[in-house]
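Action item from last meeting closed. Structure (208 res):
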């Protein structure tokens, strides 16, 4: 448990503190969403209880200067709908790690890694059901993505280099839910087009 926790902190919390330290991200509403998102990730890890997660959020407050807990504070009940759908599965935090045992991987979290592209090798994860690509810099998804025939849950929150919904997602027969929050550049037409492309998939957009 301790090893997994330290690994998560290195991959997520330290990355955020580095971004703030180098002033690549300004403290603004958008940054608060990113901060809240990370808190939710910690809270929903199955090896952590809510008390530990809340103290992790306080640590993030010190690193970033943002208010502890945010929208995922105690009053909100620490709920993250997408993470809840994949709860209980072992989480892999890098594609390299996942490819060591590709058939074992059901849940992959490679959020906030500054990725500009997704390797076609992801297609080797034939049993992948839950994939988190949020807050990366990808502008498209590879055609090999179509081989992820068991993928149910996809998180594309904050992937703001995506100008529209990648067409390859129409080739995923098991797809149930795609999180598309934090895409303020998308017009109403872009959202409507996404709904038309995936009429039987639950697409999650910002409500405001």
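Sequence:
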């Amino acid at each position: 448990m301790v090893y997994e926790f330290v690994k998560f902190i290195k991959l997520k919390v330290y990355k955020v503190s580095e971004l703030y330290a180098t002033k690549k991200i300004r403290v603004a509403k958008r940054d608060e969403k990113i901060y809240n998102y990370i808190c939710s990730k910690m809270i929903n890890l199955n090896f952590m209880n809510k008390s530990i997660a809340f103290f992790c959020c306080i640590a993030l407050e010190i690193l970033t200067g943002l208010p502890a807990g945010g929208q995922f504070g105690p009053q909100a009940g620490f709920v993250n709908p997408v993470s809840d759908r994949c709860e209980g599965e072992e989480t892999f935090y890098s594609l390299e790690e996942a490819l060591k045992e590709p058939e074992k991987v059901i849940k992959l979290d490679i959020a906030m890694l500054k990725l500009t592209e997704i390797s076609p090798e992801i297609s080797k994860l034939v049993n992948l059901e839950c994939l988190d690509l949020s807050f990366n810099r990808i502008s498209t998804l590879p055609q090999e993505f179509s081989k992820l025939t068991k993928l149910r849950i996809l998180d594309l929150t904050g992937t703001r280099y995506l100008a529209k919904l990648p067409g390859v997602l129409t080739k995923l027969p098991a797809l149930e839910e795609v999180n598309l929050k934090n895409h303020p550049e998308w017009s109403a037409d872009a959202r409507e087009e996404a709904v038309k492309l995936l009429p039987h998939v639950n697409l999650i957009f910002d409500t405001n």
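Note appended to the action item: DSSP finds six helices and six strands in the chain.
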